[in-house]
Amino acid sequence: MNNPFEVIEARLSSIENLILDLKHKPQTVEPTDQTEQLLTIQEAAEFLSLTVPTIYSKVSKGELPVMKRSKRLYFSRIELLQYLKEGRKKSNAEIEQEAKAYLLNNKKGLNNGK
């Protein structure tokens, strides 16, 4: 049987090593969907896979959602995701489904008018 003091000492040593690892590793906090992360223009360009001049151009045309404070531009990661999703094209199946629903609704409307 193992000496209980040796077991306790080994466990304490393991805990101490874990604490030291946590202490010496930089803490990175990942933003959750609920917290809004603000991006600089360089980060926004990287996020959208565009160049910084293209970002400036889209901002000046009012194409990108942006916040300005003094001379700095800030971008909401959530708003940039929404911007990307707005450019999404529907699949053929989605278009067909919408067309069928439209035709069904219009037939009902035509029948009610008679």
From TrEMBL:
The lineage of its organism: Bacteria, Pseudomonadati, Bacteroidota, Cytophagia, Cytophagales. InterPro entries: DNA-bd_dom_put_sf, HTH_17, SinI_DNA-bd. Residues 38-87 form the Helix-turn-helix domain. Pfam families: HTH_17. One of its GO terms (molecular function) is DNA binding. This is Excisionase family DNA binding protein.
